[in-house]
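Please fill in the sequence for the structure shown.

STRUCTURE ENCODING:
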């Protein structure tokens, strides 16, 4: 029974739409979207640095962080990642990720990826507790990315994405639910440049901006639509190289959901929440409008707008191109989700094969994921790391 309750709660979070009504008495003002699995960091390397992956050297998993990084990767690459998702709550949920890229020319790179979240079997019950249906829920996304160098140190990329969200189909307690589909795109820019200090030491600075999941809304029911988790990521990395087999990279990423903030709804004399907005803006707007107005629509003003940014920082140390140590910290405001976790990771590389393990330990009590492990196996023949 506990498994069914936890799974149903997870589904309700994903079903939630940005216009969810909250009372004036609550302090939790989390922004919710449909297909929130799109924001889950799928690979162990990015997890090990607390998702501050923009400034990392490019590999096959760059398709998720910022596809423009592929222009600075090698000739081709393949990566497979696996996460036993939310294992402390349920035993049959899994997150899988497959990505690859191939260089078409010295300027052009093509990347593809697929992400799948298996939510296991979910039991639906009526108001009296009788079992009405068992349903295998899941969501997946398929991407195709094109990255092009526009100069020696600057690249842009465009990603097209198809999303399918299969959380339930039928009528439950008067709510008609169905599978939902959407199309989206990412737009990324990225730059990196290396500087030689001496024969033994060099440094590298990289930065990037990625606007992801810009697309059609999801329609789980016949009444209201949900925004995709449109997200703005700005990040940078600074690396110090030694001869050049050893490398220390310092990383910082900042993220902001570009979807409407929750308004504050008026409460009547009986304590019931109405649909009348007391403070804030109506969240029922178009995607283009949400992209721009989401930067200044929080009912709490500038301070609440700032609280909607998440910050992550970390480092990666590479020892003789064969052993990697990573760590980082991710912070989200307590009123906006309270995701706060410490991350760590290791990696091993033998010729073109690399295996990475990422570990996530939450610092906040309300954080659902506990002590999560992610595993990634990557293959990069003729990788740029192998070149002098």
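FILLED IN BY: designer on duty
SEQUENCE:
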């Amino acid at each position: 029974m506990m498994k069914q309750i936890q799974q149903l709660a997870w589904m309700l979070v994903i079903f939630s739409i940005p216009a969810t009504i909250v009372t004036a008495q609550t302090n939790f003002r989390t922004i919710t979207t449909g297909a929130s699995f799109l924001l889950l960091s799928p690979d162990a390397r990015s997890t090990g640095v607390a998702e501050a992956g923009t400034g990392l050297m490019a590999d096959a998993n760059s398709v998720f962080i910022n596809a423009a990084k592929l222009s600075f990767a090698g000739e081709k690459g393949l990566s497979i990642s696996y996460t036993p998702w939310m294992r402390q709550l349920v035993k049959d949920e899994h997150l899988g990720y497959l990505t690859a890229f191939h260089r078409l020319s010295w300027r052009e790179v093509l990347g593809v990826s697929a992400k799948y979240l298996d939510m296991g079997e979910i039991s639906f019950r009526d108001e009296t507790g009788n079992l009405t249906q068992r349903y295998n829920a899941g969501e997946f996304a398929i991407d195709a990315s094109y990255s092009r160098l526009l100069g020696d140190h600057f690249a842009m990329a465009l990603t097209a994405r198809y999303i399918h969200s299969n959380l339930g189909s039928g009528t439950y307690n008067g709510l008609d639910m169905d599978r939902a589909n959407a199309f989206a795109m990412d737009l990324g820019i990225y730059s990196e440049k290396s500087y030689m200090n001496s024969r033994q030491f060099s440094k590298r600075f990289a930065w990037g901006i990625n606007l992801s999941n810009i697309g059609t809304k999801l329609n789980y029911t016949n009444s209201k639509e949900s925004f995709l988790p449109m997200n703005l990521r700005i990040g940078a990395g600074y690396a110090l190289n030694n001869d050049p087999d050893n490398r220390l990279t310092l990383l910082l990423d900042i993220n902001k959901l570009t979807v409407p903030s929750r308004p504050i709804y008026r409460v009547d004399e009986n304590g019931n929440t109405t649909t009348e907005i007391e403070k804030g803006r109506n969240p029922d707007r178009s995607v283009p409008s949400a992209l721009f107005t989401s930067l200044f629509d929080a009912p709490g003003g500038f301070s609440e707008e700032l609280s909607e940014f998440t910050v992550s920082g970390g480092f990666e140390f590479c020892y003789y191109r064969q052993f990697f140590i990573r760590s980082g910290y991710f912070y989200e405001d307590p009123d906006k989700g309270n995701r706060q976790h410490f991350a760590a990771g290791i990696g091993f590389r033998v010729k073109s094969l690399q295996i990475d393990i990422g570990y996530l330990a939450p610092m906040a009590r309300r954080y659902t994921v506990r002590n999560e492990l992610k595993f990634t196996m990557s293959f990069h023949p003729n990788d740029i790391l192998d070149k002098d």
